[in-house]
Amino acid sequence: MNFTSIFAEHRTRNRFFAFISFLYAFIIYTLTVAPTTSFWDPAEYIAISHTLQIAHPPGSPFFAIVGRIVSMFVPAEFVALSINMISVTASAFTIMLLYLIVVRLIEEWRGNADDMDAIDKIGLYGGGLFAALTFTVTHTQWFNAVEAEMYASSMFFTALVVWMALRWSAHHDQPYSERWLILIAYMFGIGIGVHLLNLLALFFVAMIVYFKKREFTILSFLAMAGISVVGFLSVYPLTIIHLPNFAGRIGGMTYGLIGPMTFVIFIFAAIAFGLYYTHKKGMRIANMVLLAYTMIIIGYSSYALIMIRSQAEPPIDQNDPSEVQAFVNYLNRDQYGSAPLLKGNTYDNRTQNIDRSEETLFPRRHSSQPRHLEYYRNFDSDLGYFWEYQVNHMYLRYLNWNYIGREADIQDTGWYSGFSDTRHADNPANTPYFYLPFLFGLFGILYHFKNDWKRAFAVTALFFLTGLAIIFYLNQTPFEPRERDYAYVGSFFAYAIWVGIGLTGIMELVKQFAGNNKAVTYSVIGLSFIAVPFWMLTENWHTHDRSENYVPRDYAYNLLNSVEENAILFTNGDNDTFPLWYLQEVEGIRTDVRVVNLSLLNTEWYIKQLRDRQTHEALPLPIRLTDEEVDQMTSQLELHDPQEIVIPVNKELLTSVFEANPDQIENNPEGFSEIVSAGGADNQMLINQMLMATPYSLPVEELDNEVRFYLEGRPAGRDNQGNTRYYLQTQDRMILEILRQNQWLRPVYFANTVSRSGLMNLEPYFQFEGKAFRIMPIKRQVGSFGHVEPEVHADRLEKFEFNEWNSPDVYFDENVRRMLGNYRYGFTQLADAYLQQGDVEQAAYWLKYGEDMIPFRDIENDWTIAALYAFRYMRVDENERAVDLAEFIQERLMHDLRFDMRDLDRYEIRMENLDEEISQARAQANTGKAQSLQREQQRYSQQRDNVIEDVSFTVSRLTILQNIYFETDRTEKAEELAIEVNIMTDGRLPLPEDIEGSRQQIEQFGLGV
Asked: How many other C-beta atoms lie within 10 A of the C-beta of residue 995?
C-alpha cells in the first residue's frame, strides 16, 4: 500500500493534522518560552517543584512531582526552563486535542469523514485546524503556555477529559466502552493535583453521556443535572475537604480508639468491599460509580506529597500543613478568607457602608475595606455591580481580549476592535482583530445549535461553567492586583471550539453558492486562515515572546546582592519574594539571606517558622514570642496608641561581636557574658544573631545610642467622639519584635518595593543600598530614598545583572516597566549623592550607565523619572543627552495631553447633560432616577478630576523639559513648547514664557538648577 492510499483514509489524515496542530503550537511556544523564572507564581512553582517543597494553598502536588522528574538531572541554570517546558508541552497537547474535539463534534452530525465529499472534508479538517491555530495564539492561552504555572497543565487535563468523553460517545455502544469513563475519572483525580478547574468539565461529560443514553425530557434532564451536582459535590468539597477534616477529628470523636490512618484504612476497605460486592452481585452501574470514585481518590492521592514533605520542614513550607487539621485548612485556603455566595451582608447605598443588620440574597458588594466601599458607591445595586464589574469587567473584557482585540497591557484597560481611535495605539499590546475571531465563533454557535443542539448544549455548559460560574463563585472585590484572565482559559477554549465550527459552517455556505469549486473553497479557507490565526500570530508575537526576558531572575539576583551578608530582608509580596525563593532554592544564590515576606508575616505558622527554623545558612530570626502569644497576636486586632518607639543601641556589644570571629562566638559563648545574660531564657537566640552579625559601613562609635521614631499606626476608623483610631497589623508588631531582639547585630533591610505604610516611619534611619533600605541605628537628614553613601550604593549597583534589558527586541509589560522606573531612581539618587560631593564626573558616569543598561522606551509606566533623568543630565553638563531625551519625552507627553484634553471635554459635556437630566427627573418627582443620575454625575466628576490631575501633572513634566531647553540655549524650542501647550489647554495651564519664569517654576518644584 503506497503513501497516497494510506493518506486517503480519515484515520491517517486526522492523525496527521492533529500532529500538525501539536507541532505548530509546540514550535511557537518553544520559541517564545521564558528562559528562566517569571514574575508572580511561576518562580514559586519552579522552586517547590525542583525541590519538592510546599507552595501556597491549595498547592499543585502533581505538577510539583512532574516538575521534579523533568528537572532533577538538569543543571541549575536550566531548571527553570525545563519546568517552563511542562507548560509548553501540555499546551501543545491541548491544541492537538482541540483539533480532535472539533473534528469529532462535526462528525457527530455529519457522520464518518470517509463518507463525506471533498468539500465537506475540507470544511471538517479546516474547522479543526482553524480552531487549533487560532486558540494557539490567543492572548490568555499563549500567556499560560510559556511559564511554569498550573493553568496550562490544568487546561490540558480539561481538554483531555472533553476529548475522552467524545471518544466514549463515538464508541458508547461497543463492549467495554465504559473504560473511557473510568479513565476520565482518573484524569479528574490527577487534575485535582494540578488545579480544581479541571473538575468543572464533569458537567460536560455528564451531558455527553446523557444525550447518548437518554431521550431528552425535562424530567430526565433535571435528574441528570441533579446527579451531576451530587457527583461534583461528592468530590469537592466532600472528598477533597470534608473527608480529610473528618479524619483529623475522628480521634477526638472516638476518644483515641480510631486514628486518622485507621480511618483512612477503613475508607479504603469499605470501597474495596463495595467494589467486590457490586461486581459479585452484577450491580454494573453501582460498580462503575465506585470504580470511578476509586480512580478519583487514586489520582487525588498526589496530595499526600503535601503532608509528607511538610513534615520534613523544608525552607518553603507554606501554611505548614504537616498535621491533618493544618492540611485541611491548606486545602480550604483558609488564610485567604471567603466571600459570601447566595446570602450575606452587603453594601447599603444610603449609609455607604456594609449593612450588618440583615442578610440579603446574592450579596456582591461585601467587602468593608475603605477603597472597596468607595468603589461600591458607583453602583445602584448588587446586580449592577455584578454585571458591570464582575461579569463585564472581569470576564467579558477578557473574552473580548482573546477574540476581538486588546487595547493595551495597562491594568484595567479594555478590549479594542481596531475600528476606533485610541490613545494606546503605540502600546505593544494594542492588538485589534477587527471582530473576526469573535464573529467566527458567534456563527459557529448558531451553526452548531442548528445541526446538533445536544452537543452544542454540552459545549455551552463547558463555556459557562469555566467562565461565568467561576465569576459567580469568586465574588471578586475591586482593585485586583493583576489581570485574572488566566483563570477563565477553559471558557475561552470552549469558544475556540465554536470558532472552528464557524469556519466549517462558512465552508458549507460556500458549497451551497459555489458548488464543488475547489478554487473558491481553497481561496475562502486560505483568506480565513490569513485573516484570523495568522493575523493574531503576528499581532501577539512580540508581547508573548519571553525568549530573551531575564528581568525577573535578574531582579531577584540584584535584590539579594543589595544586602550585606546574613541579612534579614523584608519583602512586600509575591513579585519581590517568589523570584528570590527561586534563586536561593534552585540556583543556590545568597542562601545566607533570610527573606521575610511581610504579607505572610501576618500568619502564625510563618512567624513560628521564622522563629524556629534554619534555612540553609540563615539561622532562625530573633523572635522571643511563645506559641500562645503568636496565636493571640494573629487571631485578633488590637488598637494602637500613637507613640514614640525607642530601641536602644548597645555599642559595646556591637563592637565586641564585630571584632570576634564565629568560632569564638560558637565555642566560647561564656566570653560574651554580657550578651548571653541579656538573652534571658533563650540564650541560643542571641548566639544565633551574633553568628549572623555583620559590621556596618561606618564605625560603631558613630552610631546613635538609641533608635527613636514616632509610630502612628494604620487608620482604623473613628471612635464615638470622632477621633481617629489606629491599629498595627501583625507584620508591624513582628518588625518591632525583630528589631528589638536583634539588638542591631544582624543586618536588617526593607526591599525598596515595600509600600510606605509598611515602612513603620523608619525612613530617617534608612541607608539606600542597591535595591534595598538598610535600617541603620543612626538618624540622618534623608530624602524619599533614604541616605545614600555613594561608595556603598555604587558597589551594589556594580554587582547588578541586566541581561538583555537594553535590547529593543525584548518586550516589557506594565509590571516590568514600573519596576524599571524603580531602578532608575537608584541611579539618579547615586548621581545626586556624587553631585553633593562635587564629583560631577562620577554623577555623569552613573546616569549614562543607567540609561545604557535600561534605556527609555516608547512606552513607559511613568514619564516623571524620565523627565528628572533628562534634568540631571543637564546638571552634569551632558547637554546633548539631556536635549535628546527631553525631545523624546516631549513627543509622548504631548500625545498624552492631547487625549487627556479630549477626555476632559467629553466629561464636562456629559456632566452638563446630566445636570439637565437631573433637573427633569426632579421636576417629574422621579426621586429614584434623580438619585441614580446623581451617582452617575459623581462618577463623571471623579473621572474629570482625575483627568485634570493628569493634565496638571503632564504640564509639570513639560515645564521641566522646557527648562532644559532654556538652560541649554534652545530658547526657540522652549518658546514653541509653551505656545503649543497653551493652545492645547486653552491657556488654562500655561508654561513660563522666559528663562526667569522657568527657573522660578523649577524652584517651586524643589529641583533647583
From this structure: 17
Give residue 499's Cα distance to chain centre.
28
Question: Is the bond preceding 58 in cis, omega lying within 30 degrees of 0?
Answer: yes
One-letter amino acid for residue 708 of the chain = R
Set of cell numbers at residue 145: 503556555
Q: In angstroms, what is the C-alpha Rg of the chain? A: 32
How many angstroms separate the CA atoms of 388 and 375, rounded?
12
The SS3 call for residue 427 is coil
Most confident of 246-260, 377-391, 533-547, 722-736: 533-547
pLDDT 10s digits, 804-840: 999 999 999 999 999 999 899 999 999 999 999 999 9
Report the C-alpha gap between 921 and 933 in whole angstroms. Answer: 9
pLDDT 10s digits, 518-564: 899 999 999 999 999 999 999 999 999 999 999 999 999 999 999 99
Listing DSSP states for 870-888 in one string gives HHHHHHTT-HHHHHHHHHH
At 762, list the grid cell: 523608619
Beta bridge partners of 355: 346
The DSSP bridge partners found for residue 710 are 644
> Do the beta carbons of residue 49 and residue 83 sit within 8 Å?
yes
Q: What is the pLDDT of residue 681?
A: 41
For residue 907, what is its C-alpha cell?
Answer: 466629561
Contacts of 365 (CB under 8 A, 6+ apart): 346, 347, 354, 372, 376, 379, 382, 385
Q: Strand pairing partners for 431?
A: 406
Spatial neighbors of 63 by CB under 8 A, at least 6 apart, are 45, 49, 86, 150, 153, 193, 194
Helices (H), 548-706: 551-560, 578-585, 604-612, 627-635, 651-659, 662-667, 673-678, 683-691
Q: To 5 degrees, how large is the angle CA 360–CA 364–CA 368?
A: 95
Predicted TM-score (pTM) of the model is 0.93
- For residue 290, the SS3 value is helix
Please name the amino acid found at residue 466: T
Quick one: which of 456, 536, 537, 543 has its CA closest to 501? 456
Contact 248, 260 (CB under 8 A): yes
CA distance 134 to 142: 11
Alpha-carbon span 805 to 824, nearest angstrom: 13
79-110 and 10-32 helices, crossing angle to 10°: 150
Beta bridge partners of 415: 406
Grid coordinates belonging to 409: 497591557
Pairwise CA distance, residues 474 & 701, whole Å? 56
Run of H or E residues at 244: helix 243-253
Distances (CA, A) of 533 to 23, 130, 404, 986: 15, 7, 12, 46
